[in-house]
Amino acid sequence: MTGRVDGKVALITGAARGMGASHARLLLAEGASVVIGDILDDDGAALAAELGERVRYVHLDVRDYGQWEDAVATAVGVFGGLDILINNAGLVKSAPIDEHSIEDWDLVIAVNLSGAFYGIRAAAEALKASGRGSIINVSSDAGLQGYEKITGYNASKFGLRGLTKNAALDLGRYNIRVNTVHPGLIRTPMVAGIEFPQDHVALHRVGEMEELSKLVLFLASDESSFSTGAEFVADGGESAGLARY
Q1: Residue 244, Cα to own-chain centre: how many angstroms?
Q2: CA proximity to 79, closest of 24, 128, 7
Q3: What's the pTM value of the predicted model, to 2 decimals?
């Protein structure tokens, strides 16, 4: 049976665990070869060993352009090319704007926004050669609306939307599609054991990693061949408005 991304090669950042690992598992199951990049070397190596010969782990700090070049070279050298780039790596630092440290601002912007630009820049030639490239930038509900006390995160995720639209316009002539996904609260190991009431969300629950991975799979596949420069939201209705009553 043919998979939905059969024969394609994907590079996913922040993929040693959590949502990135979930994306890697589903793309692999649907026929792709996958390069997983992260700074969590033990977790990443263990995941690659578990998933088998169509997966490679590379150390990838998304703030380092040279490491991006090495990651793309691994995809091309080991698997013959690159078709899918998923900019999933990200972090958040919590503080109101009048207390947000300069160091935390610089870190969040560097990882969440500059890291995605570096990835697009480093992968562009390989994606052009593919002739069917798809870049998926993982933004957030915080890229659609404001939240208290996550100044840098809010700014970076809104910025990622703008970067995505620019890249879609610049790269569309090469049949490279660029889109954002906007998760709401997703149940990951990072939030395990913490209660997050969702009475204000239309579906009244948190999302599961597999639900977001299915959206990523759609955008990675040829099923979304006429979608670019767009936002795809998976937030249970949080950005639609309040559902408290």
Answers
A1: 30
A2: 7
A3: 0.97
Q: Do you know the residue count of the chain?
A: 245
Distance of alpha carbon 122 from alpha carbon 13, whole angstroms: 13
Catalytic residues: 153
Give the model confidence (pLDDT) of 198-235 as tens digits: 889 999 999 999 999 999 999 999 999 999 999 999 99
d(CA 197, CA 206): 9
Other beta carbons less than 10 A from residue 179's beta carbon: 25
Spell out the domain ranges in the chain.
Answer: 9-240
At which residue do the structure tokens 């590079």 appear? 11
Question: Cβ contacts of residue 241 below 8 Å, gap of 6+?
Answer: none
Give the C-alpha separation, 71 to 173, whole Å. 25
Residues whose CB is less than 8 angstroms from the CB of residue 7 and which lie 6 or more positions away in sequence, other chains included? 31, 32
Taking each continuous run of H as one helix and of E as one strand, the counts in the chain are 7, 9
| C-alpha 29 chain-centroid distance | 18
Nearest to 124 by CA among 89, 162, 176: 176
Are the C-beta atoms of 198 and 206 separated by less than 8 Å? yes
Architecture field, domain 9-240: 3-Layer(aba) Sandwich (3.40)
What parts of the chain have a pLDDT lower than 70? Answer: 190-193, 245
Q: Is 225 helix (H, G, I), strand (E, B) or coil?
A: coil
Q: What is the rounded distance in angstroms from the CA atom of residue 201 to the CA atom of residue 145?
A: 14
